[in-house]
Amino acid sequence: MPIRILPDDLVDQIAAGEVIERPASVVKELVENSLDAGARRVQIDVEQGGVGLIRVRDDGSGIDPGELALALARHATSKIRSQDDLGGVVTLGFRGEALPSMASVSRFRIVSCLRGAERGAEISVAGGAVTPVAPAPPVPGTTVEVRDLFYNVPARRKFVRSTATEIGAILRLVERLALARPEVAFRLRHGERILLETHAAAGTDPDPRATRIDAVLGPEFRAQAIPISASAGPVAVSGWIGAPTAARARADLQFCFVNGRPVRDRLLMNAVRLGYRDVLYHGRHPGYVLDLAIDPTRVDVNAHPQKLELRFRESREVHDFLFRAVERALAPSRRVEVMPLQSDALRIAEADPRGAFDWRALAPTPVGTGPAPRLDHAAPVANPGLGPPGSEHPLGRALAQLHGIYVLAETVDGLILVDMHAAHERVLYEQMKRNLDTGSIPTQRLLAPLSVALRPHEIDHVLESAADWERAGFELERLSPTELVVRAVPAALAREDLGALLRAAVADLETGDARHHLDGAAHRLLGTLACRAAIHAHRRLTLTEMDALLRQMEVTERADQCNHGRPTWARIGLKDLDRLFLRGR
Fold this sequence. Notes:
This protein is α+β, with helices and mostly antiparallel strands. The protein has four domains: 8-198, Histidine kinase-like ATPase, C-terminal domain (Heat Shock Protein 90), CATH 3.30.565.10; 218-330, Ribosomal Protein S5, domain 2, CATH 3.30.230.10; 337-426 and 538-580, MutL, C-terminal domain, dimerisation subdomain (formyl-coa transferase, domain 3), CATH 3.30.1540; 442-533, MutL, C-terminal domain, regulatory subdomain (Ribosomal Protein S8, Chain: A, domain 1, 2-Layer Sandwich), CATH 3.30.1370. Helix content is 31%, strand content 25%. It is built from 18 helices and 25 strands. The strands form five sheets. Strands 1, 2, 3, 4, 5, 6, 7, 8 and 9 form a nine-stranded mixed β-sheet that branches. A hairpin with a 6-residue loop joins strand 3 (107-113) and strand 4. Helix 1 crosses helix 5 (98-104), helix 2 runs parallel beside helix 7 and helix 15 crosses helix 16. The longest helix is centred in the last third of the chain and has 19 residues, at 420-438.
């Protein structure tokens, strides 16, 4: 077949395949154009899930009648002029592909009027035929109608999902755009039903972003979220990250914006996920609304046809900055309240950051400046006495052990329940991490080297990570194809069943991806060791040991959750107890 130049209408349809994936893609491009035009109000009307009609009205600057036909030409745009502009794009759109792509796969119409003009103008496209520009009423702003989407591309029409699925995708898209621009009013209507309506932020609103989040996601999101704000050189982040205890089964409450642009960038998503690595329960997903501000010249938005993914000039630095910012924001411990559900039952409520307190502010010795009290595995440990005699510690005074699993403690305003394994796991893990960071993990050489039987590939896996095991305090060597010899171990684990612990750690590490360009592999190993070495169920503790565990928790970061994201403690308030027994009625 000879080489030939394709006709313009076929070229536009091919381009539409990259830009216009589904009805939500049309809404995205049109609303972004409205925002770039300075609109303060955007109205989106949809019928039949967007296949029948998508109409976007705005009150933006409008299009000059003499430029309406040019707006339908490929790569025609008002947003960049030269290659230099491409290196620092600040608008949402800039490619000049969206309008001609839409016009090639639908019955298309634009009506627009400049602000202050005496009359507007309109232009239509159907089946590749462009109508001449005609006069229109002088309504400031622009209205774009896209009807019968994919009517002339039946192969693409078959891939459109059900009406409910498509309108759901449109709603999620408009929610993202509404979260990105609290100064703009949005209304989304499907048929006669209004799916979303938000008002533009008032000048007197002290926190427009918070108001918009409450309007779009509901006030319960911020009630269970932690504010975050950090900066380093040319990059800054602000917003809210969900408390780990409020994590969800689906990743449907994750919103990230870069310079006001909604993105689904894998580098940023991975950085946030890594920030939750020590506190998120397996298989759960955190919610977050994060605004990343960065010098536009340091980010390339021309990396994806739909501009959902970006390229950062210093991608590793951006990733590490966001990861550390999330990790630091999650570090302080937070209260978990227990509230009465009925007269004969209790329910653990979600963590409430508004009632949060930072353990470090209560401890005379700041976290990380000295050794934390250690709960010995063989003998009772004296209460370290972090406060003056008779003072009330936040986690109270131990009263008893329940079912060999929980520690019951009394405080001035109620009772505390502690999952002793989960709590001790976190304490050990944070101690190991501090020692690892300072390069001072105490080790103990074994009087007689220990031989551990493993499968050949398991030993290979261990030796591939030999540097991480060595940093954690182990000295390991292959003795034979199926034997690993242990000559030294972390001092904290010297009294453990080392054979069982190593076999369990190797099995755990094999099941997941422990490698990352940060310190993920070493920390994952420490987390596994802490879990295996922590107090297990049905081990009887003395009151002195229980108190020692409580005091350790009070000076340990992230002590409210174990390494797997489970809560470590909960509180029953005195008023809740009174309600259970109808006191005062």
